[in-house]
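ok posting inputs for the nicotinamide-adenine-dinucleotide job
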Amino acid sequence: MSIPDICTCLGAGGILGGGATVRFGKYGASLALIDIDQEKLDKVVAKLQEGGVPSEKILAVKGDVTNPDDAKKVVDAAVKTFGKLDILVSLFKRYNLRESLFTKSLQFLDQVF
Ligand SMILES: NC(=O)c1ccc[n+]([C@@H]2O[C@H](COP(=O)([O-])OP(=O)(O)OC[C@H]3O[C@@H](n4cnc5c(N)ncnc54)[C@H](O)[C@@H]3O)[C@@H](O)[C@H]2O)c1
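and the output
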């Protein structure tokens, strides 16, 4: 499997986001992380550091990715720090998608997709 140099993860403090982040870190990727929850973000950063990922390969930003300014902040910071951005992993929210999408509002669909 080919691992990207630079990865940005939205919802990096979550179950899947944290897991993906730790795995990408293990394979040497530089990581730009964003989560709305500072405590969860701190935990994943600590896990990365315990796993041997150097601090200069980790950029963690607290923010709400549904807010365009916060989303731009992490992308701009990634490009400024690492020079480019290879992939974006979006795992930022837990939604109940068991109900039909036809019952959802346009605002909801915009947020998810
Ligand atoms: N865990 C599973 O088994 C599973 C299976 C299938 C699909 N999914 C989907 O994958 C996604 C992630 O799942 P998870 O289990 O990791 O969820 P999670 O709740 O553990 O993680 C979500 C993370 O996103 C963060 N977050 C929420 N809103 C945010 C916002 N506006 N801006 C920035 N960060 C925000 C939360 O603080 C949290 O750290 C969800 O959409 C979920 O429905 C999960």
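notes: The chain has a mean pLDDT of 89. Helices lie at 15-26, 38-50, 68-82, 106-112.
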